[in-house]
Specification:
By secondary structure, the protein is of the alpha/beta class. Helix content is about 30%, strand content about 25%. It has a single domain (about 35-150), classed as 3-Layer(aba) Sandwich (Rossmann fold). A 7-stranded mixed beta sheet has the order 5-4-3-6-7-9-8, with helices on one face. The longest helix is centred in the middle third of the chain and has 14 residues, at about 65-75. The two termini are about 25 Å apart.
Amino acid sequence: MKIGTYEIQVPFVTTSSDKLKTLKKLSELAPSPTAVDLGSGDGRVALELAKWGFDTTGYEIKKDLVERSKIRALEMGIEDKVFFFEKDFWNENLSSFSLIYIYGMNSIMGRLEKKLETEMKSDAILITNIFKLPHWKVKKTENNFYLYYKQ
């Protein structure tokens, strides 16, 4: 990912089973069942969201991870509930989602905050894993997840 003249590599880190239980609890606060996983990696979170009833989109820039995610969705029989795209989420409009999830890193959270100020629906929720937005007020914290409503 490029920010200004700098290229930033965001590492792929999976979300543990323990944390998925917390995410499930927090996801129940979403006003409707549409979700997006920004930087979906191997699809673990997006697949879980789909199993929990969300129509889910995963954006991932690494082709091999997108292909792996699609295969896992087929194997799980939920390919009609979760869709993976080899795309850079910075170029995608997020206004149709009621739940936005990201396991980002500090260096991108300010930019994400600005993107969400214009694109996030007023009743949607944002859940971040470990890293906080720099200016938005956290509404709920649990197991290193931070839940936000649009500011």
